[in-house]
Amino acid sequence: MWIVPEHEIADLMTPEVAFDTVEAVFGAMARGEARNFPVVREALGHEDALYGFKGGFDAATPTLGLKAGGYWPHNHARGIINHQSTVFLFDADTGRVSAAVGGNLLTAMRTAAAAAVSIKYLAPDGTRVLGMIGAGHQSAFQMRAAARAGAFEKVIAWNRTPEMLGRLADTAADLGLPFEAVELDRLGAEADVIISITSSFAPILMNAHITGQTHIAAMGTDTRGKQELDTALVARARLFTDEIAQSVGIGEFQHATARDLIAEADIATIGDVVTGTHPGRGNAELTIFDGTGVGLQDLAVASAVVELAKAHGKAIDIEI
Ligand code: NAD
Protein backbone atom coordinates (compact mmCIF):
# COMPACT_ATOMS: atom_id res chain seq x y z
CA MET A 1 0.00 0.00 0.00
CA TRP A 2 1.01 3.62 -0.48
CA ILE A 3 1.42 6.04 2.40
CA VAL A 4 1.24 9.75 1.76
CA PRO A 5 2.24 11.55 4.99
CA GLU A 6 0.38 14.66 6.08
CA HIS A 7 3.55 16.80 5.82
CA GLU A 8 3.96 16.04 2.09
CA ILE A 9 0.50 17.13 1.05
CA ALA A 10 1.01 20.91 1.04
CA ASP A 11 3.60 20.56 -1.72
CA LEU A 12 1.46 18.16 -3.76
CA MET A 13 -2.17 19.24 -3.65
CA THR A 14 -3.26 22.54 -5.21
CA PRO A 15 -6.58 24.41 -5.00
CA GLU A 16 -6.89 23.85 -8.77
CA VAL A 17 -6.68 20.05 -8.47
CA ALA A 18 -9.01 20.09 -5.44
CA PHE A 19 -11.58 22.16 -7.35
CA ASP A 20 -11.50 19.97 -10.47
CA THR A 21 -11.66 16.76 -8.43
CA VAL A 22 -14.55 17.90 -6.24
CA GLU A 23 -16.50 19.28 -9.21
CA ALA A 24 -16.05 15.95 -11.00
CA VAL A 25 -17.16 13.85 -8.05
CA PHE A 26 -20.27 16.01 -7.52
CA GLY A 27 -21.10 15.27 -11.16
CA ALA A 28 -20.49 11.53 -10.67
CA MET A 29 -22.84 11.57 -7.66
CA ALA A 30 -25.55 13.26 -9.74
CA ARG A 31 -25.16 10.70 -12.52
CA GLY A 32 -25.59 7.89 -9.98
CA GLU A 33 -22.06 6.58 -10.57
CA ALA A 34 -20.85 7.42 -7.07
CA ARG A 35 -22.54 7.12 -3.70
CA ASN A 36 -21.74 8.06 -0.13
CA PHE A 37 -22.30 5.63 2.70
CA PRO A 38 -24.19 6.71 5.84
CA VAL A 39 -22.01 8.81 8.13
CA VAL A 40 -20.98 7.43 11.52
CA ARG A 41 -20.22 10.11 14.12
CA GLU A 42 -19.93 9.24 17.80
CA ALA A 43 -19.10 11.12 20.99
CA LEU A 44 -16.35 8.98 22.50
CA GLY A 45 -16.78 10.01 26.12
CA HIS A 46 -12.99 10.45 26.11
CA GLU A 47 -11.16 13.79 25.69
CA ASP A 48 -14.58 15.25 24.69
CA ALA A 49 -13.81 13.87 21.22
CA LEU A 50 -16.18 13.33 18.32
CA TYR A 51 -15.01 10.49 16.06
CA GLY A 52 -16.50 9.02 12.92
CA PHE A 53 -16.29 7.68 9.39
CA LYS A 54 -17.31 9.07 6.03
CA GLY A 55 -17.05 6.55 3.22
CA GLY A 56 -18.23 5.90 -0.29
CA PHE A 57 -17.68 4.27 -3.65
CA ASP A 58 -17.20 5.92 -7.03
CA ALA A 59 -17.68 3.18 -9.61
CA ALA A 60 -16.56 5.42 -12.48
CA THR A 61 -12.96 5.91 -11.35
CA PRO A 62 -13.21 3.39 -9.37
CA THR A 63 -12.47 4.74 -5.88
CA LEU A 64 -13.43 2.99 -2.65
CA GLY A 65 -12.60 4.01 0.89
CA LEU A 66 -13.30 6.06 3.94
CA LYS A 67 -12.06 8.96 6.00
CA ALA A 68 -11.71 8.23 9.70
CA GLY A 69 -11.29 11.02 12.19
CA GLY A 70 -13.06 13.77 14.01
CA TYR A 71 -12.64 16.60 16.46
CA TRP A 72 -10.48 16.62 19.60
CA PRO A 73 -11.17 19.98 21.28
CA HIS A 74 -8.11 19.85 23.58
CA ASN A 75 -5.54 19.30 20.83
CA HIS A 76 -4.56 22.98 20.57
CA ALA A 77 -2.99 22.67 24.02
CA ARG A 78 -0.86 19.82 22.61
CA GLY A 79 0.28 21.99 19.70
CA ILE A 80 -1.75 20.14 17.04
CA ILE A 81 -4.99 21.07 15.29
CA ASN A 82 -8.31 19.93 16.72
CA HIS A 83 -9.56 18.26 13.52
CA GLN A 84 -7.65 15.04 12.86
CA SER A 85 -8.33 12.61 10.04
CA THR A 86 -6.80 9.97 7.77
CA VAL A 87 -8.13 8.68 4.45
CA PHE A 88 -7.90 4.96 3.64
CA LEU A 89 -8.35 3.81 0.05
CA PHE A 90 -9.07 0.23 -1.04
CA ASP A 91 -8.67 -1.64 -4.30
CA ALA A 92 -12.26 -1.87 -5.53
CA ASP A 93 -11.56 -5.17 -7.32
CA THR A 94 -10.01 -7.05 -4.38
CA GLY A 95 -10.81 -5.14 -1.18
CA ARG A 96 -7.10 -4.85 -0.34
CA VAL A 97 -6.10 -1.57 1.29
CA SER A 98 -4.23 0.50 -1.30
CA ALA A 99 -3.37 3.79 0.43
CA ALA A 100 -3.33 5.70 3.73
CA VAL A 101 -3.27 9.47 3.26
CA GLY A 102 -3.06 12.30 5.80
CA GLY A 103 -6.51 13.90 5.79
CA ASN A 104 -6.12 17.20 7.64
CA LEU A 105 -5.01 19.57 4.90
CA LEU A 106 -7.06 17.64 2.33
CA THR A 107 -10.21 18.22 4.40
CA ALA A 108 -9.68 21.97 4.39
CA MET A 109 -8.94 21.99 0.65
CA ARG A 110 -11.86 19.78 -0.37
CA THR A 111 -14.26 21.79 1.82
CA ALA A 112 -13.07 25.05 0.31
CA ALA A 113 -13.30 23.52 -3.16
CA ALA A 114 -16.96 22.58 -2.55
CA ALA A 115 -17.85 26.18 -1.68
CA ALA A 116 -15.88 27.35 -4.72
CA VAL A 117 -17.81 24.98 -7.01
CA SER A 118 -21.05 26.44 -5.64
CA ILE A 119 -19.74 29.96 -6.31
CA LYS A 120 -18.82 29.07 -9.90
CA TYR A 121 -22.33 27.78 -10.63
CA LEU A 122 -24.58 29.84 -8.34
CA ALA A 123 -23.04 33.29 -7.71
CA PRO A 124 -25.07 36.22 -9.06
CA ASP A 125 -23.84 37.93 -12.22
CA GLY A 126 -21.48 40.83 -11.54
CA THR A 127 -20.26 39.39 -8.23
CA ARG A 128 -17.65 41.73 -6.69
CA VAL A 129 -17.73 41.50 -2.90
CA LEU A 130 -16.96 38.35 -0.90
CA GLY A 131 -18.28 38.22 2.67
CA MET A 132 -16.68 35.86 5.18
CA ILE A 133 -18.29 34.77 8.45
CA GLY A 134 -15.82 32.89 10.64
CA ALA A 135 -12.06 33.26 10.96
CA GLY A 136 -10.95 29.84 12.18
CA HIS A 137 -8.62 27.26 10.63
CA GLN A 138 -10.81 26.61 7.57
CA SER A 139 -11.54 30.23 6.73
CA ALA A 140 -8.31 31.13 4.91
CA PHE A 141 -8.62 28.06 2.68
CA GLN A 142 -12.16 29.11 1.91
CA MET A 143 -11.11 32.61 0.88
CA ARG A 144 -8.29 31.34 -1.35
CA ALA A 145 -10.57 28.87 -3.16
CA ALA A 146 -13.37 31.44 -3.52
CA ALA A 147 -10.98 33.99 -5.01
CA ARG A 148 -10.27 31.52 -7.83
CA ALA A 149 -13.98 30.89 -8.48
CA GLY A 150 -15.30 34.47 -8.65
CA ALA A 151 -13.97 37.82 -9.84
CA PHE A 152 -13.93 39.36 -6.37
CA GLU A 153 -12.64 42.90 -5.89
CA LYS A 154 -13.01 43.14 -2.11
CA VAL A 155 -13.39 40.96 1.01
CA ILE A 156 -15.47 41.95 4.03
CA ALA A 157 -15.61 39.77 7.11
CA TRP A 158 -17.18 39.22 10.52
CA ASN A 159 -16.13 37.00 13.37
CA ARG A 160 -17.63 36.62 16.84
CA THR A 161 -14.22 37.47 18.26
CA PRO A 162 -12.88 40.24 15.96
CA GLU A 163 -9.28 39.71 17.11
CA MET A 164 -9.23 36.49 15.03
CA LEU A 165 -9.84 38.45 11.80
CA GLY A 166 -6.11 39.05 11.31
CA ARG A 167 -5.92 35.64 9.62
CA LEU A 168 -8.39 36.79 6.95
CA ALA A 169 -6.82 40.24 6.59
CA ASP A 170 -3.46 38.56 5.89
CA THR A 171 -5.01 36.12 3.40
CA ALA A 172 -6.79 38.93 1.55
CA ALA A 173 -3.52 40.92 1.43
CA ASP A 174 -1.80 37.86 0.00
CA LEU A 175 -4.48 37.66 -2.68
CA GLY A 176 -4.17 41.38 -3.42
CA LEU A 177 -7.73 42.09 -2.27
CA PRO A 178 -8.82 45.03 -0.07
CA PHE A 179 -10.16 43.83 3.28
CA GLU A 180 -12.55 45.32 5.82
CA ALA A 181 -13.99 44.02 9.10
CA VAL A 182 -17.72 44.83 9.22
CA GLU A 183 -20.86 44.17 11.24
CA LEU A 184 -23.30 41.53 10.02
CA ASP A 185 -25.89 43.98 8.65
CA ARG A 186 -23.28 45.56 6.37
CA LEU A 187 -21.91 42.17 5.41
CA GLY A 188 -25.40 40.95 4.45
CA ALA A 189 -26.19 44.10 2.49
CA GLU A 190 -22.89 44.45 0.60
CA ALA A 191 -21.60 40.94 -0.07
CA ASP A 192 -22.62 39.26 -3.33
CA VAL A 193 -21.30 35.94 -2.05
CA ILE A 194 -21.09 34.94 1.63
CA ILE A 195 -19.19 31.99 3.04
CA SER A 196 -20.06 30.97 6.59
CA ILE A 197 -17.53 28.65 8.25
CA THR A 198 -18.04 28.64 12.02
CA SER A 199 -18.81 26.05 14.67
CA SER A 200 -21.87 27.93 15.89
CA PHE A 201 -24.88 26.17 17.42
CA ALA A 202 -27.21 29.15 16.92
CA PRO A 203 -28.07 31.24 13.86
CA ILE A 204 -25.61 34.06 13.09
CA LEU A 205 -26.85 35.39 9.75
CA MET A 206 -30.46 36.52 10.09
CA ASN A 207 -33.09 36.98 7.42
CA ALA A 208 -33.08 40.78 7.76
CA HIS A 209 -29.29 40.91 7.21
CA ILE A 210 -29.57 39.84 3.56
CA THR A 211 -30.77 42.40 1.06
CA GLY A 212 -30.38 42.01 -2.69
CA GLN A 213 -28.98 39.26 -4.87
CA THR A 214 -26.78 36.94 -2.83
CA HIS A 215 -25.28 33.47 -2.85
CA ILE A 216 -24.46 31.91 0.53
CA ALA A 217 -22.16 28.92 0.93
CA ALA A 218 -22.99 27.61 4.41
CA MET A 219 -20.02 25.38 5.23
CA GLY A 220 -19.76 25.20 9.02
CA THR A 221 -22.70 22.96 9.94
CA ASP A 222 -21.66 19.33 9.73
CA THR A 223 -23.20 17.92 12.91
CA ARG A 224 -26.66 17.68 14.41
CA GLY A 225 -27.39 20.83 16.40
CA LYS A 226 -24.93 23.18 14.68
CA GLN A 227 -26.51 26.17 12.90
CA GLU A 228 -25.31 29.32 11.12
CA LEU A 229 -28.38 30.61 9.25
CA ASP A 230 -31.78 31.85 10.36
CA THR A 231 -34.40 29.33 9.24
CA ALA A 232 -36.47 32.19 7.75
CA LEU A 233 -33.50 32.99 5.50
CA VAL A 234 -33.29 29.36 4.41
CA ALA A 235 -37.04 29.25 3.80
CA ARG A 236 -36.92 32.07 1.21
CA ALA A 237 -33.87 30.84 -0.72
CA ARG A 238 -33.31 28.48 -3.65
CA LEU A 239 -31.60 25.56 -1.96
CA PHE A 240 -28.65 23.40 -3.01
CA THR A 241 -26.46 20.90 -1.21
CA ASP A 242 -23.84 18.23 -1.82
CA GLU A 243 -25.97 15.33 -0.48
CA ILE A 244 -29.62 15.79 0.47
CA ALA A 245 -29.70 13.05 3.16
CA GLN A 246 -26.73 14.65 4.95
CA SER A 247 -28.12 18.16 4.51
CA VAL A 248 -31.38 17.42 6.34
CA GLY A 249 -29.68 15.11 8.85
CA ILE A 250 -26.49 16.90 9.93
CA GLY A 251 -26.26 19.93 7.62
CA GLU A 252 -27.57 23.49 7.73
CA PHE A 253 -30.98 22.54 6.33
CA GLN A 254 -31.72 20.19 9.28
CA HIS A 255 -33.36 23.08 11.19
CA ALA A 256 -35.70 24.45 8.50
CA THR A 257 -36.68 20.86 7.64
CA ALA A 258 -37.44 20.00 11.28
CA ARG A 259 -39.70 23.09 11.48
CA ASP A 260 -41.48 22.11 8.22
CA LEU A 261 -40.39 25.40 6.62
CA ILE A 262 -38.79 23.45 3.76
CA ALA A 263 -39.10 19.89 2.45
CA GLU A 264 -36.44 17.61 1.00
CA ALA A 265 -38.08 18.13 -2.38
CA ASP A 266 -37.11 21.83 -2.22
CA ILE A 267 -33.39 20.97 -2.16
CA ALA A 268 -31.39 20.29 -5.33
CA THR A 269 -27.90 18.82 -5.50
CA ILE A 270 -25.00 20.90 -6.77
CA GLY A 271 -24.12 17.83 -8.85
CA ASP A 272 -27.32 18.30 -10.84
CA VAL A 273 -26.21 21.87 -11.59
CA VAL A 274 -22.72 20.69 -12.57
CA THR A 275 -24.17 18.12 -15.00
CA GLY A 276 -26.71 20.62 -16.37
CA THR A 277 -29.75 18.69 -15.14
CA HIS A 278 -30.75 21.63 -12.90
CA PRO A 279 -30.64 25.22 -14.22
CA GLY A 280 -29.05 26.56 -11.02
CA ARG A 281 -29.64 30.13 -9.91
CA GLY A 282 -32.17 31.13 -12.58
CA ASN A 283 -34.03 34.25 -11.43
CA ALA A 284 -33.62 33.52 -7.70
CA GLU A 285 -32.76 36.48 -5.46
CA LEU A 286 -31.04 34.26 -2.92
CA THR A 287 -29.31 30.89 -3.29
CA ILE A 288 -27.83 28.81 -0.46
CA PHE A 289 -25.41 25.92 -0.83
CA ASP A 290 -25.32 23.69 2.25
CA GLY A 291 -21.85 22.11 2.12
CA THR A 292 -22.09 19.23 4.57
CA GLY A 293 -18.88 17.52 3.45
CA VAL A 294 -19.24 14.09 1.85
CA GLY A 295 -16.89 11.11 2.00
CA LEU A 296 -16.57 11.03 -1.78
CA GLN A 297 -14.89 14.46 -1.71
CA ASP A 298 -12.28 13.05 0.67
CA LEU A 299 -11.72 9.93 -1.42
CA ALA A 300 -11.44 11.94 -4.64
CA VAL A 301 -8.79 14.37 -3.36
CA ALA A 302 -6.91 11.58 -1.56
CA SER A 303 -6.85 9.50 -4.72
CA ALA A 304 -5.57 12.49 -6.70
CA VAL A 305 -2.85 13.18 -4.14
CA VAL A 306 -1.68 9.54 -4.18
CA GLU A 307 -1.10 9.84 -7.93
CA LEU A 308 0.73 13.16 -7.47
CA ALA A 309 2.84 11.67 -4.65
CA LYS A 310 3.78 8.66 -6.78
CA ALA A 311 4.72 10.92 -9.70
CA HIS A 312 6.92 13.10 -7.44
CA GLY A 313 8.53 10.21 -5.55
CA LYS A 314 6.85 11.26 -2.30
CA ALA A 315 4.66 8.18 -1.73
CA ILE A 316 6.00 5.48 0.60
CA ASP A 317 5.36 1.90 -0.56
CA ILE A 318 4.93 -0.68 2.22
CA GLU A 319 3.84 -4.32 2.26
CA ILE A 320 0.80 -5.03 4.47
P1 NAD B 1 -12.00 26.63 14.30
O1 NAD B 1 -12.21 26.05 15.65
O2 NAD B 1 -10.62 26.88 13.82
O3 NAD B 1 -12.80 28.03 14.16
C1 NAD B 1 -14.13 28.12 14.63
C2 NAD B 1 -14.78 29.39 14.11
O4 NAD B 1 -16.14 29.41 14.54
C3 NAD B 1 -14.13 30.65 14.63
O5 NAD B 1 -14.23 31.66 13.65
C4 NAD B 1 -15.02 31.01 15.84
O6 NAD B 1 -14.97 32.39 16.16
C5 NAD B 1 -16.37 30.61 15.27
N1 NAD B 1 -17.38 30.33 16.29
C6 NAD B 1 -17.33 29.37 17.22
N2 NAD B 1 -18.46 29.38 17.95
C7 NAD B 1 -19.22 30.39 17.48
C8 NAD B 1 -20.49 30.90 17.82
N3 NAD B 1 -21.21 30.39 18.81
N4 NAD B 1 -20.98 31.95 17.10
C9 NAD B 1 -20.25 32.47 16.09
N5 NAD B 1 -19.05 32.03 15.73
C10 NAD B 1 -18.54 31.00 16.42
O7 NAD B 1 -12.81 25.67 13.31
P2 NAD B 1 -12.56 25.42 11.75
O8 NAD B 1 -11.61 24.29 11.59
O9 NAD B 1 -12.33 26.69 11.04
O10 NAD B 1 -14.00 24.83 11.34
C11 NAD B 1 -15.14 25.67 11.33
C12 NAD B 1 -16.39 24.82 11.17
O11 NAD B 1 -16.36 24.14 9.90
C13 NAD B 1 -16.53 23.70 12.22
O12 NAD B 1 -17.88 23.66 12.63
C14 NAD B 1 -16.18 22.46 11.46
O13 NAD B 1 -16.76 21.29 12.02
C15 NAD B 1 -16.74 22.80 10.09
N6 NAD B 1 -16.20 22.01 8.98
C16 NAD B 1 -17.07 21.68 8.00
C17 NAD B 1 -16.64 20.94 6.91
C18 NAD B 1 -17.58 20.59 5.82
O14 NAD B 1 -17.24 19.81 4.93
N7 NAD B 1 -18.75 21.18 5.78
C19 NAD B 1 -15.30 20.53 6.85
C20 NAD B 1 -14.41 20.92 7.85
C21 NAD B 1 -14.88 21.68 8.93
Please tell me about this protein's structure.
- This protein has 320 residues and is an alpha/beta fold.
- The protein has two domains: 2-107 and 296-317, 2-Layer Sandwich (ornithine cyclodeaminase, domain 1), CATH 3.30.1780; 124-293, NAD(P)-binding Rossmann-like Domain (Rossmann fold, 3-Layer(aba) Sandwich), CATH 3.40.50.
- Helix content is 34%, strand content 27%.
- The chain is built from eleven helices and 18 strands.
- The chain has helices spanning 6-12, 15-30, 104-122, 137-149, 166-175, 184-190, 231-235, 244-249, 254-258, 270-274, 295-311, and strands at residues 2-4, 34-36, 40-43, 50-58, 63-71, 83-90, 97-102, 129-133, 154-158, 179-181, 193-196, 201-205, 214-218, 227-229, 238-241, 267-269, 286-290, 316-317.
- Strands 1, 2, 3, 4, 5, 6, 7 and 18 form an eight-stranded mixed beta sheet that branches. An eight-stranded parallel beta sheet has the order 10-9-8-11-13-17-15-16, with helices on both faces. A two-stranded parallel sheet has the order 12-14.
- The chain is globular.
- The model has no long low-confidence stretch (mean pLDDT 97).
- Bound molecules: nicotinamide-adenine-dinucleotide.
CATH-level-4 superfamily name of the largest domain: NAD(P)-binding Rossmann-like Domain
Bound molecules: nicotinamide-adenine-dinucleotide
Number of helices: 11
Question: How many angstroms does the end-to-end distance come to?
Answer: 7 Å
Return the structural class: alpha/beta
Biggest sheet descriptor: 8 strands, mixed
Taking Cα atoms only, what radius of gyration do you get, to the nearest Å?
Answer: 19 Å
- Mean pLDDT across all amino acids: 97
In terms of per-residue confidence, which ranges show pLDDT below 50 for 5 or more consecutive residues? none
What name does CATH use for the topology of the largest domain? Rossmann fold
> Which series of helices and strands comes N to C?
EHHEEEEEEHEHEHEHEEEEHEHHEHEHE
Topology, number of strands: 18
Described by the principal axes of the CA atoms, the overall outline is globular
CATH class of the largest domain reads Alpha Beta
Tell me the helix content.
Answer: 25-40%
Whole-number count of domains: 2
β content, as a range? 25-35%
**What CATH architecture of the largest domain would you give?**
3-Layer(aba) Sandwich
